[in-house]
Design a protein that fits this description.
Number of helices: 24
CATH class of the largest domain: Alpha Beta
Largest sheet: 6 strands, parallel
Helix content: 25-40%
Strand order of the largest sheet: 8-7-9-10-12-11
Number of domains: 4
Shape: globular
Structural class: alpha/beta
CATH topology of the largest domain: Rossmann fold
Amino acid sequence: MRATRFGTPCAPVAGTLHRTGAWYRLRWRRTAHRMARPRQGHSPDGPGRRIFFITHISFGEAEVSAFEPQATIRPTDLSSSTLPVYEVLARDLRALDAPVFGLMSDDTMLLASTLDAMGVPFHAARHENSAIAMADGWASASGRLGLALIGRGPATANSLHGAVSASRTGSKLLLMYGDAPIGVPSPNELGPDGKALNAEAVLAAAGIRTFVARSPGSARETLRLAIAHAQRGQAVALLLPVDVQTAEIDCEAEAADALPAGAGAADRRDTPSAAAARIAADALAAARRPRDLGRASPASIATAAAVLQRSRKPLFVCGVGARHAETREAIERLADRVGAVLATSLKAKDLFRGHPFDVGVIGSFSHSAGRRLMDEADCIVVFGASFNQRTTSAGAALAAGAPIVHVDRDRSHIGRWGPADVAVVGDARAVAEQLLDALPERAPAEKPFRSEDNRRRLAQFEWAQEFRPEHTPRTVDPRALALELDRLLPADRNLVFDSGNFVQTLPFLSTQGPEHLKLPWDFFSVGMAFGTALGFAKARSDETTVLVIGDGGLLMTLGELETAVREDVPLVVVVMNDCAYGAEMHFLRLENMPVAQAMFPDVDYAPVAEAFGFRTATIRTLAQLREAAPLLRSRDEGPVLLDCKINAAICGPYIAEAAGHLKK
């Protein structure tokens, strides 16, 4: 059979097409095959050659891959009422209408291939940690359930960094793992199970709720339960033993349950299963369910209102629990009424962007104009933030003697990491609206924080005033670099930051709001940002996603350069290359210890990324960054990597704070 795309003949599909009364169609996938650009001359095919492959042939409900040149392509026997569990689970997962991120293993290959054949996007990473991070990034950016598929044994062990990290982000994630057969071992086994691992115990030790499909008949219900728990805002694991996956189950009874009375056999055969329908309905209901606006008790509202009534210079500090638009608007109305200035935690950065009395991030990442007002506050109200010691610079960022009102839905979060004089248990939006009802409007004279002088100082503030650039002949000041990037990057951007000393550049890069910022640091580890950025970019392909990563984190996840090109991800990778483990280097210096083990040779990563198919530039000066500006705005031409050689001597302000706190 010969196929065409828009009238252009393509290579014939080898294999026999068995067509038993079912219709067939061809589905195409565009593969961007970006060849490394040679330093001299050009490839005859050009660096941007695009090759189109026939990837699937679909027979009714059965779809199969068509890559193998001698494959015999057969549809599923639609007359049979039994199907292998992996195919039934694939149908149920398809009902979620979400991509799957993973890395194929021999114990997940049937499920992965079936998902792909059914039209479920399957995005393959080069490491299991990155696959889970991709699912987490996608879930965070989309607000929906993220799906990851990982193999058993060594693959499970490989994934633990990503699994633990994802379990702490609050994203809705279903981590599906292959697992060893649960039946009686065959007498014809070749030998001991080299992949043996008690995954259930390991995942439990990691703090991850785990479900196990212990029998073919319970597999679908176990999947549904796992999804239901994940939809609550947590990462859960589902173990799929190999023999359970390959066992066949009778789907006819479930299909009949989903049909109206009197439906015929043909209708029963082609109707989606009841379990798949329930899964799809549950997912849709979870996505559409309005947030429960938990109102606080009248007594706590009265106490908080009394504190605010006595205050003349209130400071509101908001975390990611206040990031929703309706919540932000309610808090802004309350701030306008009582004359408060508005600050955020680092994760909620840019929440009040554009408000005339936005004083920025509290703590280590604050600026001088905002700090001046924060230091004058006579009352602090915290909405939806943990308000931990890192947020408050171990308490140094808090005005002395100012009473603290802490608002959170979870009582255990209030006062957990710092003092709270008044605890208000409730939804941030509901509490703000209750306080609006309880507090009268104030005259301008009763709002000293809202003076024209303060308004003018905040409006005139520029981050460039906060430092004197420290460039060297071969490196650039990372702060100045970030400020220039902020000017050159598209406004509709997302930021994903890995961890390291270069995080000091975060205040100099802005976004449209905290929903455009992802900080995968919940496990306090390096290397989770690359996968997270790939997933984030997949969910928001119409925006530019910028990954800011150190040379250490890049080398941990170097294989994902290939993933970015293969998946044609609209990604800008900014490598903050200080040729060191920068944070450790500065910690060692603070301890008067040798730093040699924290320093590394100057490696040029641009040619490496170019070999994978990236468009690249090496940056040692701001002038070179400006010359590379066209790369940053050409999202549709493939991923970009900037190898930015930064001055390693510049220490982030939080480094000394953290070192001092550890000594206490």
